[in-house]
Design a protein that fits this description.
By secondary structure, the protein is α/β, with parallel strands linked by helices. It has helices spanning 21-32, 44-56, 71-79, 104-132, 154-174, 199-212, 221-232, 292-295, 351-354, and strands at residues 12-16, 36-41, 60-65, 86-89, 136-141, 179-184, 243-244, 305-306, 315-316. Helix 1 crosses helix 7, helix 3 (71-79) runs parallel beside helix 4 (104-132) and helix 4 (104-132) runs parallel beside helix 5 (154-174).
Amino acid sequence: MLAPAYDLTGRTAFVTGAAGGIGRASAVLLAGAGATVHCADLDAQGLRETAALIEERGGTARAHPLDVTDRGALRQAMAACERLDVLAAIAGIMHSSPVPDTRDAGLDRVLAVNFKGVLYACHEAARLMPARGTGGSIVTMASGAVDTGAPGLLCCGVAKAAVVQLTKTLATELGGHGTRANAIAPGWTRTPMTARHDDETRSRTEAAMARMSPLGRVGTPEDIAHAVLYLACDASPFTTGQILRPNGGVAMPWWRPPTPWRHPPTPWQHPPTPRQHPPMPWRRPPPARRPASARYRPRRRPAPWRPCAPGGDSVPTRRPRPSPPAPPRPARPRPGRPPTTTPRQASERPPSALSAPPWRPPPARRQNAVSPRPGRR
């Protein structure tokens, strides 16, 4: 029995790319949760098989054979839904070519299906969900190529990066209407699209991808379908504008390998720990410690001060007192020059300098008498 938060009874879901792979697994799981699922895909035979599988398990499904790049057909199919609570835009194609060999035809086809097809579906959902007042959840399908570059995946990486930006923009615009928008970036998943090569090449590729995962395996469509159900139901009411990565741990955007950093960390990154990274060149080295011989050597202290009598100055105990000045030395005669004469005494000075009158202070000024006020004595 599902938890009440995962119950979608009475709700309607529209799933593109439901003819196989992740789209089929998501449609079957949403129908198992109680939702009425409208399946859309270009493969009519695959759509009938998906609808039959849902009905065998007691669910309700509607099939809409269409091309997601046809905006008119997509609008007509989504308008036929009695209500729209969940949109899972999963349709996509694979294209591999190096950058020098990329042609306009391949790039335009990938952008038309992987980005414009998602954009057209989200445009109709953004118009129908707020108008009917049911809120809802939009789930788009990105790729692990948005986190790490891979040779030959230029077209798919560019288209999926545009889907991620579209999802974040929808989350900011539709949040006020109660509609959530999130993206899923799966890792390598075993689907008909990834199994287009021969068995030997596919086995070698899956073995290489399994070695990159800490879990030691690749993903299955059911692994990604459970992520779609989590974002579509009420188990994630406070999740919007996020990228969910069920990739087996192959890509961890907030984790960095223990390699030396060549630049200071950005403000949103935590500083590296000494166990993960060596000392950074931009860090100031710690101050050098004193040698052992100087570390335990007693330091010289200032001389104590001895208090004197009240009103006197304090004199340091170890400071020597100043000695009296030495008497002036007599001038010595130099050879070839006459001896210098000593300065004359006061008695030998002229009498004009001795007869000068002593200094006296000037006489005080006479202050004027103040007359009393009239009527007073």
